[in-house]
Design goal:
Elements (H helix, E strand, L loop, with lengths): L1 E3 L6 E3 L11 H14 L3 H19 L4 H16 L3 H19 L4 H16 L3 H19 L4 H16 L3 H19 L4 H16 L3 H19 L4 H17 L2 H18 L1
Helix pairs in contact: 1-2, 2-3, 3-4, 4-5, 5-6, 5-7, 6-7, 7-8, 8-9, 9-10, 10-11, 11-12
Amino acid sequence: MKKIACLCLACFMFGANVQAEVGNEWNLLGDRATWLYQQGQYNEAVTMARKAISMAEKELGPEHPDVANLLNNLAVIHDSQGRADLALPLYKHALTIRENAMGPEHISVADSLSNLAILYSIQGQFTLAEPMLKRALAINEMALGADHPDMANALNNLATMYAMQGQYPTAEPLYKHALEIREKALGPEHPDVAISLANLAGLYDMQEKYTLAEPMYQRALAINENGLGANHPNVATVLEAMAQLYSKNGNKAQQDACMKRAAKIRAMAQ
């Protein structure tokens, strides 16, 4: 599961079970947990992910790379719930297994580094986050090439860390590069493009460049509605960001409308 650091969105780096046999019950449970997460059904996803981990540990052993993938995915779900206390040890455990089993330059190690670094960034621990994000970027570029969509994720994550520290001139070209890669590789209507648009909009919003931010938020909202559904949590997140923008530029009616709709979506996801 891939976690993409965002000023207003959270999308995550899920690990695929690379050695799983089709039909394995723990693998099917893990796939079901991923699907539930993607639908915004986090509590159900947690239950399914825990069952998958228990079964996989018994069948494969606790240090198997596929166990690390499942641990990482459960951490992502907890992270989306705002439970950093539960997510952090799972991320660390998954990283240790991956480094030991697959080597320090494996692409799955980059995913673990990114997920852990994003959590540290959210907690304001930037001195821990920055070297992890730079290492993840280097691993991705070496393994996948400069134009791969996962490079966009790595660029986006590094940009977000800088934006959170107010280093806007450093963050902006990284966000723009990530957006260009995603639009070219994934198409202009992909949900990851919405993440780039929302992050760039958030960057402009933080600098009070509202006329630049608003159309990017609106495009991100439309992409998420069309690609994920009108009641997906990512739709609510963009609506909440838009409400903050409207509160700053004095558009009270739009602010209220966005907040009302976002609150309704959040209530449905509980």
